[in-house]
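ok so heres the complex, two chains, lmk if somethin looks off
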Amino acid sequence: MPLYTISTRCPLSAPEQQALVSGVTEAHCTITGAPAQFVQVVFSRGVHLRSKNSLHILGSIRAGRSDRIKSALANRFIEVASQVLECSSARCTVDLIDVPASWVIEGGAVMPEPGEEQEWLAKHLN
Amino acid sequence: MQLMVCVMHFKPIVLCSLVEGSRASFNKQALEQVIGRAYREHLNQAVTPRVIWMEVPSNQAFLEGKTSAVATLMAPVPDGTSNKLRHPFLYQLLEQWCLATGVNKNEVVITAPDQSLSREFLSANRKRMSPLRQIAYIAKTLVRLVRSKSATGHFNTHINL
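and the predicted structre for the whole thing:
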């Protein structure tokens, strides 16, 4: 968690996929302060997106992020996607769903609340 | 009392995303038993979850910026379930998943959301598409599930449409 599903109509090339993965991972970590080892990205191809959009990102993120942070995430993802696909930002959309951290188990333990990652990593991953 | 009523009408659909060729993808029968047992033991009744396996090509799944074989499991529980019930359910699923597949605890992410949140996620997934396409998507997915159940004994689908 987070888990980002990136949907497109057509398959993306390996460099495009990697650029999106790197951009989404970096944006998530920079904006939220979460470590990169939590960030999952999967691609779904062949999706006839609403309004002939080029790309859609559905993200499940830990609950507790402010609206300002969620808005910054969505804006940055759209910026990255429109650069990688060389399309208008209006053709890229993002939906984010809040999932309480205590409902998720990852790395063998219930996930930490946002902001408590370092203590959690020290306790569970070392 | 309210939780008991929710549990009585509870018919969970468990969504498991597996990377093609990963160890979990060869152990579906055992994993379905693991999932069923966790529901029965922790939700205190004979709940029979329907497990849907979603295969993901190995070059389409990433963790920490690199390709990954991590499985993700979304196993909904009745709305209002306390963490006192939810956490033992999660830990049993994790422990038994690792035993059945031989993978380590870092290779699976398990979420036990309230059923309403699980529905919200599935709805958002459909709403990527236009309303007409959503109907075609549902029909295509149902055909895939029925065919695979008949051919393999499992409800299999694919992340690519």
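quick notes: The mean pLDDT of chain A is 95. thats all i got rn
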